[in-house]
Amino acid sequence: MDQINSYRDLRVWQRAMDVAQAVYELTRSFPREEQFGMTAQARRAAASVAANIAEGYGRSSKGSYLNFLRIAQGSLKEAETHLLLGVRVGLVTETASAPILTQADELGRMLRALIVKLESHASD
Fold first, then answer.
1. How crowded is residue 81: how many other Cβ atoms within 10 Å of its Cβ?
2. What is the pLDDT of residue 122?
3. What is the pLDDT of residues 20-45, one digit of tens each?
4. Strand, coil or helix: what is 110?
5. Which of 1, 24, 40, 49 is the most exposed place for a label (fewest CB within 10 A)?
6. DSSP assignment, residue 22?
């Protein structure tokens, strides 16, 4: 097992960065009139996942870390919702959004597993 010296060593943070990058790349094709709407919202939510994982890691208590991981989960669901809505309103195709939604699903499972692990060691 690799040693964790920084939040950047966490696979969950690395996957969150991958999802955020993919959302940024996908939303480049959104219409200009969505720049301050759907584009900004999807990007903000996706970036927030990795940011909250990092912020929680930097906190001094396990309870605080868990709270930030839960916020990251919420931001992930928000980003997924923006992508799904983008498909419904014709901003992006299902084919284009599907790989990101698959990555997001995997990331969600990773976040949940980390939360469960930390909760099971809550008294440590």
1. 13
2. 63
3. 999 999 999 998 988 888 999 999 99
4. helix
5. 1
6. H
Say what the pLDDT of residue 60 is.
Answer: 79
Residues 41-64: b if buried by 16+ CB within 10 A, e if exposed: bbbbbbbbbbbbbbbbbeeeeeee
Environment class of 121 (CB within 10 Å of its CB; exposed 0-12, middle 13-18, buried 19+): exposed
Radius of gyration of the chain from Cα atoms? 15
Distance between CA atoms of 75 and 77, rounded to whole angstroms? 5
- Record the pTM: 0.92
Q: Which domains does the chain show, CATH number per domain? A: 8-120 (1.20.1440.60)
What CA–CA distance (Å, rounded) separates 20 from 48?
A: 9
Q: Give how far Cα 52 sits from Cα of 64, 86, 120, Å.
A: 11, 24, 21
Is residue 107 within 8 Å of residue 49, measured between CB atoms?
A: yes
DSSP of 39-57? HHHHHHHHHHHHHHHHHHH
Phi, psi of 4 (to 5 degrees): -100, 115
Residues 6+ apart with CB under 8 A from 114: 12, 69
